[in-house]
Amino acid sequence: MATPPLLRNCRDSHAGLLLAAAAALWLAVVFVAAQWKYANLRYTAMDLGIFTQVVARSADGDWFGSTIHPPTYLGDHFSPALAVLTLPYRLVPSPLTLVFALQLSLALGAWPLYRLARTALPPLGALAVGLAYLLSPFTQNLALFEFHFIAFSVPVLLAAANTFARKKLPAFSGWCLAALLIREDVALVVLGFAVLALLQRRPWRWVLVPGVAAAAWLPAALVIIRAAGVSGSYKFFAYYAWLGDTPAAMLQTIFLRPWRWLAMLLRPPNVITAAGLLLPFAFLPLFSPAALALAALPALQMFLGAPGGGDLVLRTQYSALFLPGLWLAAILAIPRLPRSKLAAIVGRQGGLAIAVVTAAVVYGGLTLGPLPGTLRLMVRQGWQHESALARRALAAAMPQTGGVAAAYPLLPQVAGRTATVASLNYAFIGRQQLSTLSYALPADIDFVLLDVEEFLTYHLQYRTHVLYHGDYPTAAANLRAALATGNFGITQIAGSTVLLERNASSTLTLATVLPGTPADVHGTPQELDGGVRFLGYRAGPPAPGPMPPERQLPLVLYWSVNSVQPTPLYWQMLADGKPWGALQPLGNGVLPVTDWPQSAVVETSTWLWRPTASTLALQVVAVNSGGLFLALDLASELRVTKMTPVGEPIPLDDL
User: Is 539 part of a structural domain of the chain?
Assistant: First the structure.
């Protein structure tokens, strides 16, 4: 087959047009995927909510203000360049504005990478590199996993790498400065440029400019963060507490007990993660090891932390600081393989080159990236699920002037308001992020958007957490006390999501202790395992709010226990004998079975979406293990890996 003339005579102008068209198409596709995620409450990891609030408050003059992580985002990270996002946010005040800005910057990153590749490859080979970047699973991950400002460093550092390769020191210095403004730990990559300049035996100015800038910037940024935070420390040092309690103790461990950090560095998850980072590059960076100096310090930062490597590093924002070094090393490696078939293929500007490179890139993008899985979810479900539509309606029902404490999925929906916004997980556990400092529900919170199903997330997230396991047993009682102190009452309901308002009178409750079993209860009492007793059920009152009445299954259940329960229990609806819907906490989370008084009657109310089934039943279970995993679209999803039935299924007739 003859090679098309455009490819046979490919010039920079042709390659640039093709790359621009590909970047525009990529941007359109990933932004549609992001809109679908947002419409279906699939941004569930807090980050989009956190950044939306910081940008919204900055746009209103409260620069870097945060009530989710109070008092300021500068207590988390030093990111002065974040202020730039206030400009588009003022025009379109929406969380999706931030997502689009991030995706646009990633799309634009294809151009400096193309220019970098042109220092070693002909136009067609450089075009293949640019297309590989757009379809790379890492670029897809950064575009679709939540929102993290660190992802903006990728195109900026690629521009720095391009000017470094072309030996344009003034432009290189400018790009390094821009990169440092993104976040404090970007200095680790900038410092890597100094190491690379040493290895390449460049003039000393190439070593001193990035080296001095990074070495001065990082400690100065840490001082600012410590001054801005409430704890007076850099809270992410908690990941390195195994090295020592103070920076001096950490240095002592590093220099006097190197076997400790070497053992941490070479943990199997770290080795597997390193291989996972290299795999989409066909391990080419290993043939240009000097360029990996850019990724060396970020690797130490990640792999020496207590969590270490793993799937999260490969599929989330944690890969960002690795990518400039990996791309630079891969590009520099290609000309160093003169006798290989790879070099011959890349060097020829023919149809075979395009076919081979395209096949490799498409395979990696389809098997490792989130975009194909997200598109499959969109086709399978449709544009917006009815439950997401109803839950978003709850968020929209609150006046903008009221303070809100919200569950994870609803945090981005309310984060842009001028009033106080809090994440309900901190109010539940009673601690600040990565800290022993206490956290209480702010006094100016007027509304609580509570998701009953989220209490299972808290169970798996906090029950064995190294910092929070001691707070978990009393967390539900503390949350009940906070809601009672504020006289919060239920005003609207959408499935598992409940809107409570301060000083609202309501006859609806999630769970309450009764003096005895009401007379109008249906069903046969049933003894379950471990001293739990099911007493009966009845149809409940309809849920006020956006749920269509014909789609509701209001259900009131009655229970008792004759012994102390060591862990929370849950129940699963069975529709025609098959599990339906999510696990529901026994006691709706606010009154878990561990807090039930013995022999008392406990009434719990739920408002599920009605399944289309001829028979209904419920199964009580104990959750043995599980955790948060990344779904096909990179939404954080709860997954129970093992649960044990507690007794036999309980039939629910006449509902």
Answer: yes
| Cα–Cα dist 240/153, whole Å | 24
Judged against a pLDDT cut of 60, whether residue 622 lies above it is answered with yes
CB 644 within 8 A of CB 622: yes
CA distance 257 to 263: 11
Q: Per-residue DSSP letters for 355-424?
A: HHHHHHHHHHHHHH-SHHHHHHHHHHH-S--HHHHHHHHHHHHS-TTSEEEE-GGGHHHHTTSSS-EEEH
CA distance 419 to 528: 46
Kindly state the DSSP code that residue 572 receives in the 8-state scheme. Answer: E
Please identify which residue in the block is written with the tokens 């963060």: 225
On whether residue 509 sits in a domain, the answer given is: no
- Give the phi and the psi of residue 85 in degrees, each rounded to 5: -70, -10
Q: Give 476-495 pLDDT, tens digit per residue.
A: 999 999 999 999 999 999 99
Q: What letter does residue 586 receive in the DSSP assignment?
A: T
24-63 pLDDT, tens digit per residue, is: 999 999 999 999 999 999 999 999 999 999 999 999 999 9
What is d(CA 81, CA 290) in angstroms, rounded to the nearest whole number?
A: 30
Provide the phi-psi class of 530: left if phi over 0, else alpha when psi is between -120 and 50, else beta.
left
18, 142: one domain: yes
Q: Six-digit token pair at 631?
A: 């779904």
The answer to whether residue 72 sits within a structural domain is no
Backbone angles phi, psi at 78, to 5 degrees: -95, 100
**95-108 and 153-165 are packed helices; what angle lies between their axes, rounded to 10 degrees?**
20
Candidates 378, 371, 242; CA nearest to 308 is 242
Q: Coil, helix or strand for 196?
A: helix
* Cβ pair 120, 332 in contact under 8 A: yes
Q: Which domain holds residue 578?
A: 522-652
Q: Assess if residue 53 is contained within a domain.
A: no
Q: Is the same domain home to 327 and 206?
A: yes
Q: Please report which helix (H) or strand (E) contains residue 624, including its range.
A: strand 616-630
- pTM of this structure: 0.93
CATH number at residue 530: 2.60.40
Q: Can you point out the beta strands (E) in 487-542?
A: 488-494, 497-502, 511-514, 526-527, 532-539
Angle (CA) 463-465-466 rounded to 5° is 135
Domain count across the chain: 3
The residue type found at 165 is: A
Residues facing residue 603 across a β-bridge: 512, 558
Condensed to tens digits (0 to 9), the pLDDT of residues 259-317 reads 899 999 999 999 999 999 998 888 889 999 999 999 999 999 999 999 999 999 999 99
CA distance 209 to 182: 18
Phi-psi group of 569: left, alpha or beta (phi > 0 → left; psi -120 to 50 → alpha; rest → beta)? beta
- Terminal alpha carbon distance of the chain: 67
Domain boundary among 378, 406, 421: 378
Helix (H) or strand (E) holding 59: helix 47-59
Note whether 605 and 556 are within 8 A (CB). Answer: yes
Pair 453, 581 in one domain: no
Amino acid at 609: W
| CB contact set of 463 (below 8 Å; sequence gap of 6+) | 469, 472, 567
Same domain, 391 and 374: no
CB–CB of 584/607 below 8 Å?
A: no
Instruction: Give the C-alpha separation, 52 to 23, whole Å.
Output: 25
